[in-house]
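To fix ideas, we give here one paired sequence and structure record:
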Amino acid sequence: MRRVGLGVLFFAWLYGVPFLFVVGLVRRVSSPYVPTHAAARAFGATTETLLTTAMVLNLALPIAGALLARLARDAYWARHFAWSPAGVVLIYLVAAMAGSLATGPLFSWTPPVGLGAG
C-alpha cells in the first residue's frame, strides 16, 4: 500500500504541478470577458490561487515524498524522489522565465474590464 501512496504523491507532483502552472499561465495571458470590476478581481484571484498552489506544491510534494520514502525504507521511490530537486528547479526556472517575459506581473494581477480588453 505504501508504494501506491508514494506513487500517487510522485505523479501528483510530476503531472499535477505542471498542469496547475500551465492552467494558471493560460488564465494569466487570456483576455476574458469580465463585465464588472468584481468579476475581474475574482478571475485574477482564481488565477493567483492556481499559480500559488502550483509553486507551493512544487516544493512541498517532492520533499514530503522523499521523507516518506526514506521513513518507509522504500528504495524504489527514494530513487525516484532523489531526482525531484532537479524538476523543482526546472519548474521554478520556467516560472521565472515566464515572469520575465510577461507584460505584467504573474501574481496580484487583475484583468481589465470589458470584452477583448488586453
Observations:
- The mean pLDDT is 85.
- The helical segments are 2-29, 37-71, 75-82, 84-101.
- Residues 29 and 103 are 9 Å apart (CA to CA).
